[in-house]
Amino acid sequence: MGTLIGFVTDSLEWLYQLTVQINMPSYALAIVLLTIIIKVLLYPLTYKQMKSMKVMQQLQPIIKELDQKYKNNPQKKQEEMMKVYQEYGANPMAGCLPLLIQFPILIALFRGLQSFHPSIPEHYNFFWINDLSLADPSGFILPVFVGLTTFLQQYITSPNSNDPTQKMMLYAMPILFGWMTRSFPAGLALYWIAFSVVGTIQQIFINRGIKPTPVEDTAKDKNKKKHLPVKESEKK
Fold first, then answer.
1. How far, rounded to the nearest angstrom, does the alpha carbon of residue 79 sit from its chain's CA centroid?
2. What is the DSSP letter of 84?
3. Across the chain, where does the E strand assignment appear?
4. Which of 129, 140, 152, 155 is the most exposed place for a label (fewest CB within 10 A)?
5. Considering only CA atoms, which of 164, 159, 149 is closest in space to residue 215?
6. Do residues 56 and 211 lie in contact, with contact meaning Cβ atoms separated by under 8 Å?
7. Are 23 and 32 in contact (CB under 8 A)?
8. For the whole model, what pTM was predicted?
């Protein structure tokens, strides 16, 4: 963890020097740039995550059928579900991987921003915030933006808004994150806001780029067959 914290602080200082070169000296801008870099590095995982989540969404009718069919035989139901996942290339755990990778980065940012000593302290601010290593002095502005941007990203990425559990998480997680960031370093809250905004934009492009899955194609074929006229040979 110490190596990761050192890497984060060194990266912030390097990115700050980059903002100096473009005549926009700002550690806040350096944090935003770091966010963009992290999102670009995580893009392959994010794409796989959303593709898997899309397939999982379309597999829900099949999963519900298995729940009903094998409700008294959990072992058999699990075996059949694994067969379905393998057939369509779905991975229920794929959605957790980017979060698991992101978590150490958040911890490193949290600890790094608390102990970070900027080379130019007067540039370690953001509008009404004089020191990004301290909590937002207003007590609510950044936390509210954290909640709103988290909600927006979850709303865009939510694979099944009708699911009660996901619907609860859609509202509970933004409130939780917003409340937590009240006492977090303002720089970390700024990172999370930028992460959510960039993630939302990225997600819109991912949604447009994901091609129909085999589940969709199968459903379309079945729907077409329902409307096809019956052949004379089949009538006989």
1. 29
2. H
3. none
4. 140
5. 159
6. no
7. no
8. 0.77
For residues 98 and 157, the answer to whether their CB atoms sit within 8 Å is no
Q: How close are the terminal C-alpha atoms of the chain, in Å? A: 73
Tokens of 173: 């997680």
d(CA 153, CA 170): 9
Residue 98: phi, psi to the nearest 5? -60, -35
SS3 185: coil
10-42: b or e for each residue (b if 16 or more CB lie within 10 Å)? ebbbebbeebeeeeebbbbbbbbbbbeebbeeb
> Which residues lie below 8 Å from residue 88, measured CB to CB, with a gap of 6+?
55, 59, 213, 214, 215
Q: pLDDT digit of tens for each residue in the chain (236 aa)?
A: 678 888 888 999 999 999 999 999 999 999 999 989 988 888 887 787 777 777 777 788 888 888 888 888 889 888 998 888 888 777 777 666 666 777 787 788 778 877 788 889 899 999 999 999 899 999 999 999 999 999 998 888 775 556 677 778 888 999 999 999 999 889 989 999 998 999 899 888 877 776 655 555 554 444 444 443 444 444 44
